[in-house]
Amino acid sequence: MRTKRTFSVLIMTLASLMSLYSQDNATVREPVDYVNPYIGNISHILVPTYPTVHLPNSMMRVYPVRPDFTGNRLGGLPLTVTNHRSVSALNFMPGFHSGNTDGSLPVVSFSYDREKVTPYRYSVYFDETDISVDYAPSHQSAVYSLDFPSSENAPCLIFSIRGKLEADGHVISGFQPIGRATNVYFYAETDVAPAKTFVMENNTFVATYPASTTKLRLRYGISFISVEQAKKNLEREIQGYDIDAVASAGRRIWNDALGKIKVEGGTENDKTIFYTSLYRVYERPVMLSEDGRYYSGFDNKVHNDEGRPFYTDDWIWDTYRAAHPLRLLINRQTENDIIRSYILMAEQSSTHWMPTFPGVQGDSRGMNSNHGVAMVADAYVKGVRDFDLAKAYNACKGAIEERSLIPWSDIPAGELDDFYKKNGYFPALKPGETETVRGVHSWEKRQPVAVTLGTSYDHWCLSILAKALGKTDEAARFLRCSYNFRNIFNPATGFFHPKDKDGNFIANLDYRISGGPGARDYYDENNGYIYRWDVQHNIGDLIALLGGNEAFTAALEDMYNTPYGMSRWEFYNTLPDHTGNVGMFSMANEPSLHIPYLYNYAGQPWRTQKRIRNLLEQWFRNDLMGVPGDEDGGGMTAFVVFSQMGFYPVTPGSPTYNIGSPVFNSAKVNLGDGAVFEIEAVNASADNKYIQSATLNGTTWNKPWFSHDDIKNGGKLTLIMGAKPNKKWGVDNPPPSAEIIR
């Protein structure tokens, strides 16, 4: 009896433990469960984030059709967004219709409620019409489920597009132009055949369904090649109308993608911010290959992809800084294929120049400088080399030497470029001087300081590629050009200062506000305080220009301490991109991302540790305004991913990473091929932000940086954290800068 009772108690105990385990296990959150697509959906001033529903780097992506989160009505349901931050192409409206063909549109927008968004599923309720919507995407196709109430009028789908649609039984297909030579094609099937289809005024296509229809399901594929290819894309990915199956597959794909970095410790909000930021990085670029073929907007032709996927939709000025380096760590093959794609774009274009803002329709040549060269150089020095380096070099060299440096232009080099090559700086207009140079945009202006600094960096990156190809003379020439930033340094003020064509500094300059809208007469989107640090490749020389470590640190602190000097509305009326302010520092724009790490170069790493943690806490939060400025499809949120892990690539093109202050006790980065790099932060917390000591791969580490070689095969950085700074740690070992030329 005693043995039986003992056994019975053991069974009951095990059952209780299993029950507790099941309860705990049911609440375990996977990486995708931490993603909050609503973070940043209300903008501080400019463009908000959008709650995007898509699979990683996939052609199919949608978000609610409204200007921002506060929009009171939805302008229909989206079918696909073809370019980042663009409006949806081919969106449609579910509603009710009497069947008459001469009436006005029955529905033009929707009052809505109960909206739910995850990366892999979207649902919403239209309260005025009592229609429930459910949606899930695949890579190039998706499925909708629409629930209609009983009604005297027939359910209908209304498509208002600039292209052409037609119906045949259960099938609706057609296309919409999205540019002068580019179309997005659409093939859809519904599980209920329409009773009637007709075209109303303004090319509005209407399909009405039997009045008895209370549930309508629509599955569709998209293509940039043809309607037939859109059908193939649909049939390859979605065979039925099972929206749960499509969503479940999407959830698995997202967990695999986000799970490449596993974090432990920190708060639940910390994890939400982290995985949401990582999700944002996967929005761009998008993979366009469709069954081994892709459409290129660079020559408006369809090409075979030769077994390597083709990517586009990227704003390199924003993403080269952190998004591309992050991808090099966690998706090396994808980054390699992206570079191969951009080389193909150069070959397919009439100019053969490396793109800057490649999209489905071609290159928009956005912003200033040609930072595609930084993307290539960074990959090369970190061992990602399965691309034609000579072709990449020629494309990058052409974009810097043959194309004009005028911002937002796509014209050959001209008189301003000749001036730059002769004098080593881009000239500013004198106050009151009228612009006469062809190609200078009336809004974007010359941006001479931004162009000079950005091109100096581009030349440094180009010198790396030239050296790798054995082009010794060209490498030396480009290295010398990388010091052109010195030509606009004003020793009297310690700022980079616009010069006119006669070599004189522009007089009466206010580094906070001068330069007109966006400071574009001299800088770009940010003011002189931000561009003071825009020498990513050679912080060591910048320190020398400013007078040494103490003066350099004092200048950094001065930036954070300098007030607006005017009302906030006056400041933001001129510089709307310059939000997320701490003094004159702006957390809201990409040229600022590396600045908090610069104390590492001047012997005070503890200030970097403090500043990074403070900025993350102040400006990146789990709420609707939790992103301080334009996010640009991973351009800014990649900074958050790196910084929360505890390191950052200050200089793409240099195989090094600066150490900051980890938010998590552990972050494990899957580098591929079984290699894992772990950052362990012992005792890390909101208070314990300062590094007391460190080891790297078991060896005592007294540097505020490490090399890519230190971690490329896996490894472990262990940081002992504390509440007060260790002002001796990392002081004498600054990160490397470019080769010094006197």
Offer a quick outline of the entry.
The protein is α+β, with helices and mostly antiparallel strands and 742 residues long. The chain is built from 19 helices and 34 strands. Among the domains are: 34 residues; 222 residues, Beta-galactosidase, Chain A, domain 5, CATH 2.70.98.
Characteristic terms for this protein:
Beta-galactosidase, Chain A, domain 5, 742 residues, alpha+beta, 6-stranded mixed sheet, 9-stranded antiparallel sheet
| CATH fold assignment of the domain at 36-257 | Beta-galactosidase, Chain A, domain 5
Low-confidence stretches: 1-26
Number of helices: 19
Question: Cα distance, first to last residue?
Answer: 93 Å
Helix content: 25-40%
The share of residues in extended strands comes to 15-25%
How many extended strands? 34
By CATH reckoning, the class of the domain at 36-257 would read Mainly Beta
What would your notes on this structure say?
This protein is α+β, with helices and mostly antiparallel strands. Among the domains are: 1-34; 36-257, Beta-galactosidase, Chain A, domain 5 (Distorted Sandwich), CATH 2.70.98.10. The protein is 29% helix and 21% strand. It is built from 19 helices and 34 strands. A nine-stranded antiparallel beta sheet has the order 3-5-6-7-8-15-12-11-10. A six-stranded mixed beta sheet has the order 16-29-30-34-31-32, with helices on one face. Strand 10 and strand 11 form a beta hairpin. Helix 6 packs across helix 7 (332-348). The radius of gyration is 28 Å and the shape is globular. The protein starts with a helix and ends in a 20-residue tail after the last strand. The model is unreliable at 1-26 (pLDDT under 50).
